[in-house]
Amino acid sequence: MDLTDSPPRRRRILDAALAVFVANGYVGTSTDQLAAAASISKATLYKEFGDKEGVFSALIADAAERIDDPFDPLIGRMGEVADAADGIALLAEQFARSIMAPSVQQLRRLVIAEATRFPHLGTLYWERGFVRVLDSVSACLQVLGSRRLLDVPEPDLAAQHFAGMLLWIPSNRTMFTAGAEPLDDRFLARVIESGTTAFLRAYSASSSSIG
Questions:
Q1: 67-72 own/partner pairs: CB under 8 Å, 24+ apart
Q2: pTM exceeding the 0.85 threshold for the entire prediction
Q3: How far apart are CA 170 and CA 106, in angstroms?
Q4: Are 20 and 29 in contact (CB under 8 A)?
Q5: What is the pLDDT of residue 197?
């Protein structure tokens, strides 16, 4: 067997496994289904991952390692925006549309569904994914605060408020309906606009001087 194909083969197996696990859940997925979806033998699957749990663990660990933080580059941009409205609009658009991407929501639903069975994987995905992203959002808000464009005494808490205003309804609806109701782009645009307005009102630099 040519072992030089192992890395790309592993990638193909994990990509195929994600679709199977999303469709059937962990309990409803068999090694036969995983092998068939990846067009490999069960022997190859066992050799590469050990068993079904090995495939699932590798899938979530790999996804956590490959999470791209789209907000880190925006930290520098926050030092250049003309005002708070421009900065928060830029952050909100990137944040909401990145997190609400169907592929991201599918993976989040899968991790949440199996968090009790695999708590270490849930923690891994939370820390490598959402927490890391929130840290970057917090850093962006801190820059806006240092420029006195916003009043942000606690950037980490403000980042959580920011995430909640943008994700609470669309993400929960996607989680509970399992994606049966496709996210309407106009609805997401309204959520982004209203969430941005509410956040700016709550953290306006001028509001800190009122009263």
A1: 67/128, 67/129, 67/132, 67/133, 69/132, 69/133, 69/136, 70/94, 70/98, 70/133, 71/95, 71/133, 71/136, 71/137, 71/140, 72/136
A2: no
A3: 13
A4: yes
A5: 96
* Six-digit token string for 194: 């209203």
Dig out the tokens for 161 from the structure. 């408020």
From CA 81, how far away is CA 75, in angstroms rounded? 11
Tell me the one-letter amino acid at 106: Q
Q: Is the pLDDT of residue 97 over 80?
A: yes
Given a contact cutoff of 8 angstroms between Cβ atoms, the answer to whether 124 and 61 are in contact is yes
Tokens 């309906």 map to which residue?
Answer: 177
Please give the distance of CA 33 from its chain centroid, rounded to a whole number: 27
Both tokens of 116, joined, read 């009790």
Contact 102, 118 (CB under 8 A): no
DSSP string, the chain: --GGGHHHHHHHHHHHHHHHHHHHTTTT--HHHHHHHHT--HHHHHHHHSSHHHHHHHHHHHHHHH---TTTTHHHHTTT-SSHHHHHHHHHHHHHHHHTSHHHHHHHHHHHHTTTT-HHHHHHHIIIIIIHHHHHHHHHHHHHHHTTSB--S-HHHHHHHHHHHHHHHHHHHHHHHTT-SPPPHHHHHHHHHHHHHHHHHHTBGGGGG--
- The C-alpha angle 21, 26, 29, rounded to 5 degrees, equals 70
Q: Judge contact between 143 and 79, C-beta under 8 A.
A: yes
* pLDDT: which is higher, 113 or 6: 113
